[in-house]
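Regression check, flavin-adenine dinucleotide case 1190:
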Amino acid sequence: MTLTPSEGGVSVTARDFSTNMGGLCQKGWTSAEVLSVGDRIITPLLRGASGALEPTSWEQALAFIAQRVQLLQTTYGVDSIGVFGGGGLTNEKAYQLGKFTRTVLRSRHIDYNGRFCMSSAAAAANRAFGIDRGLPFPLADAGSADAILLLGSNVADTMPPLVQHLARVRDRGGLLVVDPRRSATAALTADGAGVHLQPLPGTDLTLLLGLLHLVIAEGHADQAYLEARVTGWDDVRRSVALWWPERVADITGVAEPVLRRAVEVLAAAAPARGGRGAMVLSGRGVEQHTDGTDTVTAAINLALALGLPGRPASGYGCLTGQGNGQGGREHGQKADQLPGYRSIEDPAAREHVASVWGVDPATLPGKGVPAVQLLDKLGTEIRALFVHGTNLLVSAPDALAVRARVEALDLLVVCDFVPSETALLADVVLPVTQWAEEEGTMTSLEGRILRRRKAIDPPGQARSELSILADLARALGSTVRFQTAPAEVFDELARASAGGVADYSGLSHALLDEEVAGFHWPVPVGSTGSPRIFGRRFGHADGRARIVPVSPGSPHDDLRPEAPLYLVTGRVLAQYQSGAQTRRVPALGKSAPAAFVELHPALAGRYGIEDGDDVRVTSVRGSAVARARITSAIRPDTVFMPFHWSGAGMANAVTNSATDPISGMPEFKVCAVDIARVPAELLEEDVHELAR
Amino acid sequence: MSSPAERVLVVGAGMVGHRFVDELVRADRVGRFEIELIGQETYEPYNRILLSEVVAGRADLKALSLPLPDSERVQFRRGVAAVELDLAGRRVLLDDGTATPYDRLVLATGARAFVPPIEGLERAPRHVHVLRTLDDCRNIAARAMNAKHAVVLGAGLLGLEAACGLRRRGVPVTVIDVDDHVMATQLDGAPARMLAGRLRDLGVGVITSSSIAEVINAYDEIVAVRLADGRLLAADLMVVSCGVRADIRLAADAGLAVDRGILVDADQTTACAAVHAIGDCAQGLEPMTGLLAPGWRQAERLVAVMRGSTVEIAADAPRTPVREQVRLKATGVDLVTMGVRASQAGDDDRLVTLTDSRARRHVDLVIRDDTLVGVTCLGAPEISAALSVAFERRTPLPVDPLTMLVPEGRTEEPASPVRMPGATTVCRCSSVTKKDIVTAWEGGARTPDGVAAVTRAGTGCGGCREVVCGLVDWLNASDPDIATATGPPASRHVVARL
Ligand SMILES: Cc1cc2nc3c(=O)[nH]c(=O)nc-3n(C[C@H](O)[C@H](O)[C@H](O)COP(=O)(O)OP(=O)(O)OC[C@H]3O[C@@H](n4cnc5c(N)ncnc54)[C@H](O)[C@@H]3O)c2cc1C
Ligand code: SF4
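Current build output:
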């Protein structure tokens, strides 16, 4: 999109650009309004003697932080300071935050909210391909495919412009959508445009094993490809022998003819069988489970069996809705990584990055822990937390427990531009710039590095994290050099990433300004980027993909008589992440006025609930109350809540924080609950109690 | 120092023996057990259940092979049979002349197809087969290439799968059963008659209340069968599917207690504490069904017992005998049954039945205390999988069970823009409702582009453009005068349309 300064703000127009084909969803149209919301924080805030957050100067705020951090580190050690980053930060900020944590704080405890987003897909892609780029091909390739299997990704609501790319696929009857709800995306399969597979929540992995079984049983596996490009096929082939379609139908609730039809469509689209291309794309719906990494692996296995990755308009990819989820994880916000998607445990990587940073590699900390474990340590091992670009009090699972742990901290520093729930708990709130107010870069889900340009000046005293971190480093007595100009930070990032998996070394802001369509990484010096990365080889040293057998586990918090229903959570179009930004925009509030619980008419009837009634959703962890929205688009054994709201309607008070053993992804998507209608009189009291 | 590993010997590498070994290896992280698996069949372990799919030509053999036991943890010998148990010496004699010792012996010898005594069969004519092993399956599939008249004796689950499979390969086939209806173990008369109708639709002949009295051979080959009522049927391929008999010979010879199967207690243990039996060969507290699910449960239970967890067993104790979930695997027939059948429903149960003779559909639901306790579902694949889930997971049922018989997703929002309620979102990206569009039209926007300019509808992905055009056309058509006039229309017209 292009921003033009206008009276009292900026206005946004869609720029012709292949990811969204000139389309721009409402989040884009109204994003200029976020910049000028009334409660924008414009001065640093410090919690005063009265207990309230009071305006203060930058000097005072930073001095306060530095003094407390030094005290805590002397008492509890360097690892007592934690940093929680966000997938919405620019690459420059994400890089700077990682560098600051490793060289100034020297703490191993950094991670970011991207864990809640695509860490399962990242882990699975790394395991299979030796490289994790959300999409190893340009998104626009989707327009040339014959079939697309979308797993748990409601793109019509989360990435509407992508729907354009689906038009041709739909014309060919090739849109396959796996979702327990008949979501807006699933509805796109109607009228012969494709097939909707509506499994019981928590059975996606079983479903995928069933599809792979059918691929093999019907002789669709691409033997030549598997022999030439893949290691481990024999084990995987055997591992699905016990997932015959009738068994899978009875576990998932997806009818056997539907399973067969889906495989038929997908196989016919595979280039090896003369099709124009088939894609398997996964979203959070399948990833946010304790077996999320294995579920994505099963999706990748399906793609590999059909010989898709590296073929025209084909392959596996992961869709993310978060601004810079891809770039955010490539440059050092992840607990185990250094810039360029390098392992923090690889001596050569440590050596290289330390030399760019001008420090001794031995001083760099080792790897930390993933987000949910990091949050578990708050108030105990971790005494202070820096929060950047995330409202974790609302967006983390089992949010009530997280709140209690955050309250137990000795120091909470929040960088934000609006007073989010997390900011309101902070000891210090630092007002930061946001997207139209600064220069920077982002990396799209297709690994494409794009420029973000400054259009207006930040309001009040808001400053960029780049300079805040530089000043803090100095206040903490560090001699490590921190650039503050975004273009220079980028140059340093580029050098640090050189030779890494996500190599940006051939890029600069100037170069990106010339080429608005951006470059796909890896872009080593002299390269023009790599839109499609699997044509000849995969990322593992031998160039082959690894296909790994997986087997389903049941949800960590499974159905039982006291909790006979599944709760699934997700987003609705007009809200973004935890909603701290979007809940403040009036035009958006109109389309999604309050938290709601979606339930099937049959279920509503059983519980005596009518449309618009207040419904309490209870798990062993907590409960939330929201308005009933009755729709046959959902399974009768499942209720749905969006996760954007805080307060009484906070879905994450109910969700489970159990995590995937491989990726650390929490099991947001499914837990066992019971529901009840709340009589109107009771509610007010309850709201008070919940709000404490 | 840890104590030496316990030697576990498993005889029979079929569906249940294989599963047992897999579970035990998974559960035993510390290498407490040293495992040996002996299997008589020469093949790698395979999924027996899918043999009917192979007969039908619906599954590639590649889809059948099971994971090989972890070679580091399990010594696996195939093509070797156990011939004698030496309980006193704690060893098993094998048909290759060797003996192998054990601390704990697990018998998973399964079952063999039962072949009733029929005149003419004693000469072992060619092209008469049972269907139990991969070899049987290959023989049947090979003969099906040029068979012209096949008969299947026994209209149980397996017999019908074989018959439908042969039919799918283009072989004319007749199934014969002594019961007065097909699948008598699982079905009441009404659904069974509907099923027989469906089979006949598919070209499978069904003869009930009869049986084969004689197999007529010529030159050692089957040429016809004579039914009990004297009728003669030409037959050049016969599949005998008359149930199974547990393979108990080893146990019986060794003096272990046997009845129809090897007798075991709730722990799957025989009278000898070091010997267990699981799967089709075992006879415990549960009824012997010849189905896989109970065998898998027994394997899991035995692993739990061996890990010393008694708690789990109590919780897992066999439920009151219910009909196991059974699904017919046959092209063109969707049938699933589980739990209480209609004829067994009590006075306090709620029995809901749907029959649709033309579509060959029959559904029985038995509901007890608001829980689904029985399902028979024929000819309704759109709902059968959902019913299985509701039965297995015991999810809350609708107040009116009839709604369970209507496939989900058939109650679409009204598709026509005219019937759409005013609050319906037309353009998702810009959150433009039908009402917003009518208001824009009211304000003078008479073309889709005009409406887009005012509301932004359809300016993003364009997915809604058709609906916007439809709405504008409808509004224009509804009042041609107003549509061509320049001024805003009388608003009551518009109100009436919302
Ligand atoms: C075509 C077909 C379709 C079926 N479909 C279904 C279905 O849809 N649903 C369902 O629930 N069930 C079905 N069944 C039944 C299911 O296959 C059995 O319940 C299951 O195989 C039982 O497992 P088991 O390990 O106890 O016995 P088996 O699978 O029979 O395995 C026993 C093994 O032990 C070996 N063995 C025996 N004696 C010795 C010895 N002395 N030494 C060494 N090895 C020995 C045998 O060779 C055999 O390999 C089907 C069966 C068939 C044949
Ligand atoms: S892009 Fe909207 S049609 Fe698609 S949803 Fe957005 S403008 Fe409509």
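Comparison notes: Chain B touches chain A through 55 residues (CB under 8 Å). The mean pLDDT of chain B is 86. No diff flagged against the previous build.
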